[in-house]
Design a protein that fits this description.
With 172 residues, this protein is mainly alpha-helical. The protein has 6 helices and no strands.
Length: 172
């Protein structure tokens, strides 16, 4: 019973808005969150585009592209959770609607089903856009010594640079 009562006190403290004291000010956390929200929006938009292309790719490279797109969207799906959870750890709510993602994202979505080659080109550009967004967010996080966010963004940058390179290699 003592454990339940201690847990109840903890939950009440959280519910009352126990201040976050992780060594970053509210302003610093808000600044990093704004950048992470753009990263989440770009990442989600790229995820959705990659999954769409996985479903709709045709042509002589069907098997190769179908599998590559699945590998990429599956990895991206896992990353979305990490980005959103980092926003929450910083004490803010993560954007989670198509409207918010459309407003925050720098990636243009296709309006029709492109050819396989156009899909590859769009995914190269999408991965590169995520890289640019990650670099901007990384600079903000680094400027306030937010090492966990820097680490997360460094990992994302590595993956999206590699994805862009692999996709680009298909066009040569």
């Amino acid at each position: 019973m003592a454990k339940a009562s201690k847990l109840d006190k903890t939950l009440k403290s959280v519910a009352k808005g126990l201040p976050i004291d992780i060594g970053l000010s509210e302003k610093e956390r808000a600044t990093v969150t704004a950048e992470l929200s753009k990263m989440l929006a770009d990442s989600y938009t790229l995820y959705l585009m990659t999954h769409n292309f996985h479903w709709n790719v045709t042509g002589p490279l069907f098997n190769t592209l179908h599998q590559m797109f699945m590998d990429q969207y599956t990895e991206s799906w896992q990353a979305l959770d990490s980005i959103a959870e980092r926003i929450r750890a910083l004490g803010n709510y993560a954007p989670g609607t198509y409207a918010e993602y459309a407003r925050l994202s720098s990636i243009a979505e296709p309006t029709s089903v492109p050819t396989a080659e156009e899909m590859i080109e769009m995914l190269v550009k999408g991965n590169e856009a995520v890289c640019r967004t990650a670099r901007a967010a990384l600079k903000k996080a680094d400027s306030v010594s937010d090492e966990p966010t820097v680490d997360l963004l460094t990992q994302r940058l590595d993956i999206h640079e590699k994805n862009a390179w692999m996709l680009r290699s298909l066009l040569q």
